[in-house]
Structures are given as C-alpha cells and as structure tokens.
Amino acid sequence: MKKVFLAALLLPLFAQAADNFIFCTEGSPSSFNPQIVTDGTSMNASSQAIFNRLVEFKPGTTEVMPSLAESWTLSKDRKTYTFKLRKGVKFHANAAFTPTREFNANDVVYTFKTQLDPKHPLSIPAASYDYFKAMELDALISDVKKTDDYTVVFELKRPESPFLANLGMDFASVLSEEYAQSLIKSGKGLKTLETAPIGTGPFVFKSYQKDSTIKYTANPTYWKGKPKIENLIFVIVADSTVRTQKMKSGECHIMSEVQPQDIEALSKNPAVKIQNAAGLNVSYIAFNTEKKPFDNLKVREAISLALNKKSYLDVIYKAQGMAAKNPIPPTMWSYNNKTADSSYDVEKAKKLLAEAGHPNGFETELWTMPVARPYLPNGKKLGELVQADLAKIGVKVKLVTFDWPTYLEKSKKGDHAMIQFGWTGDNGDPDNFMNVMLGCAAVKAGSNYARWCHKEFDNLLQQAKEESAVAKRTSLYMKAQEIFAKEKPWYPVAHSKQNKVMSAKVQGYKISPLGNENFEAVSLSK
Amino acid sequence: MAILKGLLKVTGYFLFISLMSFSIIRLIPGDPALHIIGERGASEERVAEIRKNLGLDQPLPIQFLKFSANALVGNFGESTVSKQPVLSEFKVLWPATVELAFVALLWSSLVGLGLGMLAAVKRNSFWDYGAVSLSTLGFAMPIFWWGLIVIFFFSVKLGLFPVSGRIDVMFDIPYKTGFYFLDTLLSGQWDAFVSACKYVVLPAFVLGTVPLALIVRVSRASIIDVAEEDYVRTARSKGLPYKQILFKHIFKNALPQILTSIGLAMGQLLTGAILTETLFSWPGMGRWIIKSIEARDYPVVQAGVFYSMLIVIIVNWITDESVKIVSPKMRDQQRGG
Q1: What is the pTM of this model?
Q2: Is the CB of A245 less than 8 angstroms away from the CB of B163?
C-alpha cells in the first residue's frame, strides 16, 4: 500500500483534462452579484463570466455595441432612451432554480429599479449599490419602465452623453427578476444572489472555494453560441511571482497582473506568448493647489521642469509605458496631441523657483502609493527618483506613505502636499477621467487630489457632458486639456501598457482596454 | 466555590479577549468606508451612508457591547467585504490552516526530536553541529525566499510537485468536514486524496522549518540537562545499558520541556501562516486575516484576533495538562498538593 501511494505521488502532475481553461487571478471576488462589487477582480469573476448587459464594448475597444438590447433610439430632447430587447435569451439554471420564462423587459426594469430605489421589494437590504451611485446614475435616471415585453424606456433628468457607455459597465449587468422572486418565496433571501449567481452570460457558475478556485461550465444555450471552453476555472494565486512560476510550469493558461520585470524572462519561454495593448490609464503626481507653495503656478512649473520623465519610464515601466502629458490616454478619443509636455530643464526650473520667491528651494512631502497598480507598479521607486531630481533644484522632499486605507483617508481630507495617484477608465469616456479627477465637484468628493477647481476648465467639462455631438465634445475636451497643460495641477507620469501573458495555445483572446477579462470567444489549440 | 472561581476566570478571559479583539483594529487609522470607495472619492453624504450600513455610525461603547454580546453566542457578524457571515468563511478556511499546521508540525516534531536526540547523544561531534546548524539555517531563511527556491527547484525544474494550491483543479470535493484528507476519502475519491497529499508537501515542508529549529534545540538541551542529573549518573554507575537509560530515564524526564516547545509551535501554526499561505496560495486563515486588515474589514479582524487568542489559551492549557501527565515531577507535586 505504501509503495503504491509513493508511486502515485510521483506520477506526472498535470494530467489536466484538455477542456479545462485555467485563468490564474490575483484575488478572491468579494461577491458574485455584479451590482454590488466595486473591484476588477470581482467583476471578472461575476459580470464578465456569468452576465450580459444591455450594451457591451466591442472586444479590444471601448466602442459600444448591442448586447441584450438589439437597438435603441434617443428622443429629440435627448432625455428618453428606448431600448428594443433581444428575444430568445435564456437565463442559467442551478440546483435551486430553473427559469420558467426567457429574458424580457421585466428583468431590465428590476435590475435598474432595485439600484434606484432602496425601498423596492427586491432591493437588497443594506446594499448601497456603490458603483451605480458613484457613476451618479441615481441622480440621472428619473424612471425605467416597460412598454411591452421587449421594450424598455429610460427617462433621464438631463441629457448626458456618457449614459450609454455606463450601461455597458459591470454594475449594469442584467439579473433575473424571476430568480430574485423565487429566493424571497423560498426563504433563501436575496443574499443568495451573492453566492449563487444566475445570469444570461457565456458561463454558468458551478462552485467557489474562497482563496482557492472558482469553477464555471460553458452555457450550452448561450445566445451567441456555446463558448469553446468547456470548463472555465479561476485559480486564485495572490503572489505575482508565484503566478509567474505557475505560468512557467504550465499550471495556468493565462495570468493576471504580470510584473514588468518578469516580462523579459517570460518572453523567452516558447510555451508562453505575450500580448500587449495600450492601457486606458494614467499615473500622475498631483500638487495640492490649496497649499503653499503649490498654489503658485511658477512652483508647479519649476517642479515639472526639474523632473526627468524619461528616467521614470526606463526604471519603473521598463518599456511597458509611455510618457503622459494629458490627463487622458492617447487611445481615448479627444486626446489633444498638440499640448506641450514640460521639458527637462534644471536651469530653467531653478530660475522659475527663484522668481516664485524660493531661491534656495523649500522642504515638502511626496506621498508614495503603497499598493502596486497597473498604472504604477512601484510607487516607492518613483518617489526616490523624484526625490533625487528635486534635490538638484534645492527642493528637499520627504517621502511619506501609509497603508492603503489610511492613504485614501488622509488624501481625501487634503492632508498631502504632493501625492502619487492614478486612474483606470470605467467606460472609455473622457468625462470618466477628467470630471472624476479634476472637476470642481471632485474636490469635495475627494478624488480631485490636486484640489484644483478651475472655473473655465470645469465649465468646459460640464458642457461636454451634456453635449451629444462627438465632434463638439472633442473640441471642448481638447480645450480643457490646453488649460490643464498650462495650469499644471498635476505632473502626469505615464500611461502603462497592459501585458497579458498566456500559454501559446490560447486563441482568440483580446485585451480589453477597460481591464476586463472575458473568455467567451477564447479557445485552446491542441 | 471552585465553580464560581472557574466561572469568574472564564468571564475574565472572555471580556479581555473581546476587548482586545474589538480595539486592536480600531486603534489603527484608516476608514473602512473610504477603502470601499477607493481612488474614486465620494461626497460626505455617501461616506456617511456607507458608514451607517457598516454600523460604524454608532458610539464605540454600543458597538463594543453589540460585538461582545454577539460573540458570546458565537455570532461574529458579516464581513464588510464579502457580506458573508464571518463564521461561514471561517468554517472553510480554518480546516485548511489546521491541515497544513498538522502536517508541518508532524514532520518537524519527528525530525526535530530525532535530530535533537542525535545531537545530544553525540554531543560536540559532527552530528551535533550538523543537526543544530541545519535547523538554524532553516529557521533563519526568510520564508518567502526559501519558499520560492523550493518552488523553483521542485516544481518548475523537477516537476515533482505543483507550484501552489490545495488540490488539483479537476477535483470537486463536497464539503463535509472541510479537511481535504478526510473529505476526499469520505467521498470515495482516492485520486483526490493523493492529489491533496501532493499539494501539501511543499508548503508543509517550508512551514515546518520554522518550528524545527526550536524543537531540535529544546530537545537537545533538555536531554543534555537531564543526562547530567544525579539519578542518571547513578543509573550509569550501576551499569544499566545506555539505551535503557536514554529511553527510560532521560527521555521521559526531558519530554515535558519538549512537549511545551511543540505546544508553543502549535499555537503559532494554528493561527495561520501568513507568508506560507500567501506563497503557496493555501486557502487558510492567515491570508484571510491579513487581507481583512488591509481592507479594514472589522468583523473579520475581530473574529480573527478573538480566535487567535482563544486558540493560544486552549493550546497552552492542553500542553500544561499533558505535561502534567507525562512529567513524573509534576505528577508527584499534584498528588502531594
């Protein structure tokens, strides 16, 4: 017996079934209800795998295209959207629930009404629907109603151009009203939505082991056709070095969040291929413009001139990023290529600093990001480089950091002087970058870390938000970027590339600029 | 009277543990509501609303009373991150920690005891130095670095063991006890049992090197100590065979100290091995609690601290009791008292 057992131990390990597709992800999802999750890890595990939305983003782009809604029309006053829904779409079934009807307008109304109205009978008690509110849809939508089984009408309080793109976001995933009702009836409660999700999407949820695995099977009745992957498995591997090792040993077909320094070694491995695409992100150093001396434009200019952006890109991004000069990335429409980036000019920086009344420099703080993000893999390193650069013009920088929740809390209050931050877009709209991070309202909300409220800039953003013609919006955002370049509330650092490391066998994978992981069109070659 | 005294003691323990669990996480700055919001920011009203949903708007004493009253009946609330009952997550993660701790402790106790005895018997020889320095080396190596070397060598290069995880992804283990060694057998999946064994080897090996050094040193030292006692010398002068002396007299008397050191190690391992669990993607308690501290998930951290303190008390108590059983000295003292 003992011998048999030992022999079994030494058998080849990876007798993996050929129809298993393994995605090595970085963390456990917080929930499988896409309406209440706020982090990318959870969205990939819930909305991308299990659900559909009224509209979706064309793979690899931020272009909006039909999904559960086949078509839509917009009223003259641009406040009423009418969606025609797709017919013949089936919800998944699980051990406790078998749908008796196909997807229809009731599900859409239920999906949005519960998020709009906390008193709705199917609204989850104490769920705050954070993402829905963060996108301010609670203040935008006045009503959602069904006019017939396959027609839904959204009434808005004011015209808003990013609205359609918002409906393609994860929190807008369409849930089954019938399932929610059955959960109430059977006494299981709406909490079950978070552990036993039912959607219309490419994969059917099978099981979840916290910090270990999530398993799905292909949806045989998927309205786009059954996915080629039979079993989709998310394996949770927290440490990125270990994920890389697992990639090398063939235990993952695709992995999330590779470290820039591992890419070169991986690219030499013949069993592995690397795709990359521009990321929809930006990293920056914000000057707290409410505080001296950063209220003075000359000081902001001087510091921008003293920083050597090229060295940051070389050291931190290792050819996986490009220099940023605007708050939005170049892949986004309305990117202004004509704005000038600050050059690297130490002498001129010294001169400006003297003009600003600091001939001998000054002492200040730079807060460095305590967590690695795709847009900034190593905040501490960036801090050290900035510190060395600014020492050359006499500005003594003290590097400060806290753990992430504390960092957020203190920066929201405006305790910082200079601070590192960044952003990854939600829906591909420029409003989602500029208004979220530089609008006047964002000063109070805490996400305008420069605490910079510029009337003219803000007016342009608000006009662009209500305008519908893309050409008009583009020119407004272009103008806003000119003001940004002149006023320098930030020192923009970089837009990082997204790298996806996958087995050479993976076919049909497209990198989403929004950072989504969607495997509905992916297959494995033999 | 004795019952009353015992009751008072237990109440005291309970109040102390719950006060500690409640306050430790609240002493560090960082607002759970702001963590939920992230880089995006939110208005004051939204922050207040989220805080209210988390029950953080109430005064601290009320929060504490609620927490301890619930803890008394074993209700630790819901995780603010996953919104699931803390206990239901604990039920899944705890057996993983216990399983790993058990295997790690088993091999390190056996090997540690053996090496310790060898070192003591062959004192100041090559064997002695070898055993002691080897175990110290294992202890001194940073787990993360050490673990990566082990992974690189045994998994990536030799392909003997999987890099990380608890069982091959192809198996579905129905939850019965949560212990994979048991559940795989209970559901009749022999292959799954073998797979679980393969997956535990590397993490248990790496984790076990920490208590190993302690056990080697304590067993060596206590055997040497006892060997110099008068009664051992008497036995030797009487001409008893050395083997008999070693096991009958020396080892028996050295055992209490060795047991105490194993107990200490057990208390440590049972509260979750953060680094080993992270490195080997082992779905246990250590990582869960660390993640929850990062996210300021108060209910989980409270429960985690509560459990950790409780387990240390229980393990120490068990160790004390078993030492009393095996130690002739203490047994006699008890009898006398």
Answers
A1: 0.86
A2: yes
